[in-house]
Design a protein that fits this description.
alpha+beta; 2 domains; five-stranded antiparallel sheet; 21 helices; Penicillin-binding protein 2a (Domain 2); five-stranded mixed sheet; 21% strand; Beta-lactamase
């Protein structure tokens, strides 16, 4: 019994020692864990927080939309609509390669091609899959929960007026940066400034929580263009109809507000739709009214008459002898269609006498003629600031030869843009004052610069009104109920080897109404092929319809009731 009791006591003692040892080990381990936890949570918090942030917190961009472009009356011309772009982390998607066919099907693309894109960009962490999707379509792809896929909110430009205002507005690229037109010229003004936010992402790279806003996005500022969308639509419709009717290669119309220098309408043909990127070719989107130059032909003659009156050697009643119907300048013989004999300056313009204009110009000092033409804005940029604007071509008088000054008289040997020609006629309409051209709505008329005397401008304006009378070349430009003035032009196009006999540019530049000029309008129809090609036949009726509609839109009262009924009947007969 004693031996058994002793053995049991030893077993119990051994068990107690082992139990105490195990308890001590557990206690020590627990103390170590507690100490480690205290160390990590109290003394190493900053390190752990940083490591967690590195793995889960990211900086995300908050897109800002561009400013709205409106017409002068607040009608939207360019707005930004929200779209979503899908991007992916190739490093993550290649680890789930079996889901690439599913992703390709959702995107509507080839699975093999998508797999090649992923594998060839596996070293990158960011790759766009599809830009500017509808938010609902992008959400459907995100709902697939494919590793590495995320969404980015962006904005896409939309142009409600489409091709009607496309040449003036221009367009933006896929990153919403201005590329042409007002979008480019005022990109610094329209562009918004993106914001930033801190977000938490899960292991699939998807945002699970917005942590904080670091920087608020700043949207772009609104821009009010000078155009009146109602007049813009009218000019677009009439120009397009004329180009189609005459089978012309191109055309342009510019409508200027004489009192302010604002462009109320600017249209071109061919046109393009800035909402359709497939139409983005330079030949489509260039603004011909500002970038393309042409020889102005007889539309320059009023400026020659103005220079003659400014010289002091001529008065409105002066007479030019055009007999025998031609004039020889060097080796060139300049002719009229018939011998007009002794004619007044008014008849010179009304009958568009090349001989009279040549003799008038040749009698002037070259430096004074150059100064007057340059003062009208020829050969220099307007103040529009439009990207790619052409200054035209007016060579310095020191480079002129006698034949240069002779051909200059009837609009050859120099080049202008439609906008420059409209600005020159606006000087006549404004009593001799040149105002800067503006493509933006302005609140106060800018300071004007005097180019010619007010008496000179009034005399030339009165002569131009006769051009639109029954005896003038511009009779088809008449507007029922209004006194209008203007000048026709028909220019032979320059081709390799000289001037073509069967390719022309038809022009009309006019002013309305004469009693209190408000509009200066230029119509250019390039290379009509329907048979008729004279400016009085092709461009003058377009001016008539645009002027009539614009005067009604602007609520300008009629100033010529005596001719209203008679002209109304004739203009209806001229309408297509």
């Amino acid at each position: 019994m004693k031996a058994g009791s002793h053995t049991e006591a030893m077993v119990r003692r051994s068990f107690t020692l082992r139990a105490r040892f195990a308890a001590a080990c557990l206690l020590v381990a627990g103390l170590v864990l507690v100490a480690r936890a205290v160390h990590l949570q109290v003394f190493n918090t900053g390190f752990l927080t940083h490591q967690a942030d590195v793995r889960h917190l990211r900086i995300a961009k908050l897109s800002a939309h561009r400013g709205v472009i409106t017409d002068r009356n607040g009608e939207p011309l360019a707005v930004s609509t929200p779209v979503d772009s899908i991007w992916i982390n190739p490093r993550q998607i290649v680890q789930s390669a079996e889901r690439i066919p599913e992703l390709a099907a959702a995107l509507g693309t080839d699975a093999d091609e998508l797999a090649r894109r992923m594998t060839s960009n596996v070293g990158k962490e960011f790759l766009y899959l599809r830009r500017h999707m509808r938010p609902s379509e992008a959400a459907a792809i995100i709902s697939l929960n494919i590793p590495g896929i995320d969404i980015e909110r962006e904005y896409r430009r939309y142009y409600p007026a489409g091709e009607v205002a496309g040449h003036l507005l221009g367009f933006t690229n896929i990153d919403d940066m201005g590329q042409e037109g007002l979008e480019l010229e005022f990109d610094h003004w329209l562009a918004g400034e993106a914001g930033k936010k801190r977000v938490m992402k899960d292991r699939l790279g998807q945002i699970v929580e917005d942590v904080e806003r670091i920087k608020q996005p700043s949207p772009g500022r609104e821009l009010a263009a000078s155009i009146d969308l109602r007049i813009q639509y009218l000019a677009y419709r009439e120009l397009k109809a004329a180009v189609q009717r005459t089978d012309a290669a191109a055309g342009s119309v510019v409508v200027l507000d004489v009192e302010t220098g604002e462009v109320l309408a600017m249209v071109n043909q061919p046109a393009y739709n800035p909402n359709d990127r497939a139409q983005f070719a330079a030949k489509n989107y260039r603004n011909r009214a500002i970038t393309d130059i042409f020889e102005p032909g007889s539309t320059l003659k009023p400026l020659i008459v103005a220079a003659a009156l400014e010289s002091g050697d001529y008065v409105p009643a002066s007479v030019i002898d055009t007999s025998p119907g031609y004039v020889q300048v060097g080796a060139k013989r300049i002719e009229d269609s018939s011998n007009l004999g002794r004619i007044s300056l008014t008849t010179l313009l009304a009958r568009s006498s090349n001989v009279g204009a040549t003799k008038l110009a040749m009698s002037l000092k070259s430096e004074s003629l150059y100064a007057t033409l340059s003062g009208f804005g020829l050969g220099r940029l307007s103040a529009s600031g439009f990207p790619g604007e052409s200054a035209g071509l007016l060579s310095h008088y020191s480079n002129w030869r006698p034949i240069s000054q002779a051909t200059l008289a009837y609009g050859y040997g120099l080049s202008v843009t439609p906008l420059q020609l409209a600005q020159a006629y606006a000087v006549i309409a404004a009593g001799g004052l040149l105002r800067p051209v503006s493509l933006l709505r302005i609140e106060q008329p800018p300071i004007a610069r005097r180019v010619i005397r007010a008496t000179t401008a009034a005399a030339v304006l009165a002569m131009l009104e006769v051009v639109v009378s029954e005896s003038g070349t511009g009779r088809r430009a008449a507007v029922a109920g209004y006194r209008v003035a203007g000048k026709t032009g028909t220019v032979k196009k320059f081709v390799p080897g000289g001037y073509s006999e069967d390719r022309h540019t038809a022009l009309f530049a006019g002013i309305a109404p004469v009693s209190r000029p408000r509009l200066a309008i230029v119509v250019v129809v390039d290379d009509p092929q329907s048979g008729a090609y004279y400016g009085g036949e092709i461009a003058a009726p377009v001016f008539s319809r645009i002027a009539a509609g614009s005067l009604r839109i602007l609520a300008i009262p009629p100033d010529n009731f005596r001719r209203s009924d008679r002209l109304g009947t004739k203009l209806a007969a001229n309408s297509p």
